Please model this.
Amino acid sequence: MRTILYARVSTRDQTAAHQLTQAEAAGFKVDEVVTDEGVSGVSTKLAERPQGRRLFDLLRAGDTLLVRWVDRLGRDYADVSDTIREFMRRGVVVRTVINGMIFDGSTKDPMQQAVRDALIAFMAALSQAQAEAMKEARRAGVAHAKAQPDAKQKFRGRKPSFSRKQFDQVVSMLALGAGLSEISQATGLSRAAIWRIKGDPAACEASLQIWGL
Model:
């Protein structure tokens, strides 16, 4: 029985090593890391990703599939929930580093099954809400930046106090309902910076675009 970490790396600020470090810090012993690089999680199904396809051949009954969060497992609500259920049917336990969620298909108790299935639906819905929030922030940010074609040459404003990785993490955690203190602790950002992102994510995204971050 093995624990396999699946890491999707879609931006220059993300690394599989960072996701492995997070998993080990949470107490997981990882036997193997499977990584998809340069793959968008909001446009590509897990089964259509090169290493995502490999997971279906690699994992066996009794193995554990570990992911940072359920959004790693699909591009939208249907894809995430179908993927989790497919692995459970195969006897694979799915676990998340964030919040330590466990999805196990071995239970036979109807009440436990109902609670588990409701939780899958809820987590998958949160994952899609998170992805939609990210896409909307980026669309608005790009539009804002394009409306100022000479911004780089004339005036770029103050350089953002947050990185692309921190911005993405704040937007994701806000979509999941996290509080300012929790987000500050996770990202290392001040509450003021988080308030700026929360208050106008489009402008913050535009600033990252203008500065090339």
In short: The chain has a mean pLDDT of 79. The two ends are 41 Å apart (CA to CA). The domain at 3-106 is CATH 3.40.50.1390 (Rossmann fold). Strands lie at 3-9, 32-37, 64-67, 93-96, 102-103.
